[in-house]
Automatic annotation (TrEMBL):
Pfam families: DUF2290. It comes from Microcystis aeruginosa Ma_QC_C_20070703_M131. This is DUF2290 domain-containing protein. It comes from the Bacteria.
Length: 195
């Protein structure tokens, strides 16, 4: 059942699991905040203004600002940043913002390539043809507009009107499974339990 405690527990457990399997290099455990008597926010320590991610600035500048401010739940070992933000009123989901910001550069790879070249988990990450593209799943029924702004949508890159309709909101586990199974290499499957 979808409720504040279940979503919060899911984010907390996913954070611990990503640490346990060695995919997280830094993290901010989830926080549960009461915004009003009825509305709760599941966020993370250091959560601040995310408008930088929506501005017309270079992707590397967006990434650097989010990284510098530790504005993420998880920083993956390749530098990718993951954000899991939910607003609920009781058991009713009001909105969510689930984002993946791939690293525009791999500084540790550049400094110590021998640590990564033999490791299967980095095989895809260090390929020269990989492009850093932010991925965001939003559930935002308050801003629904027929055709132009679906209630639930996927945004790829920084295109202002790129909103690909999605059939329903995502749980934290489904979003992380999507990232691990469809974005990252097969060696990251240990978190989802798939093989």
């Amino acid at each position: 059942m979808l409720n504040v405690q279940n979503i919060f527990k899911d984010v907390k457990n996913l954070t611990a699991k990503l640490i346990e399997v060695g995919l997280s290099s830094q993290q901010n455990f989830p926080t549960l905040n009461k915004l009003s008597q009825n509305i709760s926010e599941i966020s993370y320590a250091n959560s601040s203004d995310l408008s930088i991610a929506l501005k017309n600035v270079a992707y590397q500048d967006i990434y650097d600002e989010l990284d510098r401010g530790k504005n993420y739940n998880i920083k993956m070992i390749d530098g990718a940043l993951i954000q899991l933000l939910y607003h609920l009123q009781g058991s009713q989901l009001l909105s969510h913002r689930l984002a993946f910001f791939s690293s525009p550069y791999l500084e540790s790879f550049q400094n110590e390539p021998e640590l990564y070249e033999e490791d299967e988990i980095f095989a895809d990450i260090i390929d020269k043809n990989i492009v850093a593209v932010p991925i965001r799943f939003d559930y935002d029924p308050d801003n629904f507009q027929e055709i132009h702004h679906p209630r639930c949508h996927l945004t790829l890159g920084q295109f202002k009107n790129c909103r690909i309709p999605v059939s329903s909101p995502l749980t934290p586990s489904i979003f992380i499974a999507f990232i691990l199974l469809d974005i990252l290499p097969p060696s990251s499957y240990a978190v989802t339990g798939d093989s």
